Amino acid sequence: MKILHVTNARGWSGGLAQMELLIRGLHERGHENFLACPSDSQLLDRLRGLNVPALFVPMFQDYDVYSAWKLRGFISRYHPDVVHAHHAI
Fold it and tell me: Global pTM?
C-alpha cells in the first residue's frame, strides 16, 4: 500500500513522534510511505535511514492554496492509496 503522510509541523512534538513510529511500523510491514512536510521539519532527520521520499511544502496555514496545489500534483503523480493528514499537537 502507498501512504502519503502530510504534516505542517517543523519542531519536534508528540504528533511527530507518533508519525515517526507509524511510518517505521508501516515500513517494516512493507508499505511504501511518502512524506509531505516543510523542508525544515525535524521528522526528516529522524526518518533519514528509511529513505522516505519527501515533498517539501511550506504549509504556512491550514488553508494554503500553494501547498494544496503541490499536494495535488504529487497525488496525481504517485497515486497513494491513503492520504493521512497529521497534526503536530
Answer: 0.90
